[in-house]
Model the fold of this input.
Amino acid sequence: MSGIKGADTKPEMLVRKGLHAKGFRYRLHEKNLPGRPDLYFPKFKAVIQVNGCFWHKHHCKYFKLPSSRPEFWRKKLEANAVRDERNQYQLSEQGYRTLIIWECAFRGQPERVAKEVLSVAAGWLEKGNCDLVIP
Done:
């Protein structure tokens, strides 16, 4: 598991490059915020998390519990999901808005899908007043 990337994943890089091209400036993996969110936008008091469907136990067709050592994986992935909820709650308590973009949101025709996801994210940053999830 030490070889698994936790940062700079392909979906995260798509979001970062796309929002930067639209003029949004952010900080990466802010250490002082719960869960060290992928993108932190101080100007908007907002954070974006780009979650992988497997590691964050997303209930979509791309998540499948491994058949080898299922109890180990069930416990590990459940702990990840609980930690995500706790971090989300703490961010909300501190007054941050949160956008969660799931990895499966980029499946399909990559350019068109990425453009739609980035459009929603940009609109949320500028005008959104609550948390949002892009499944």
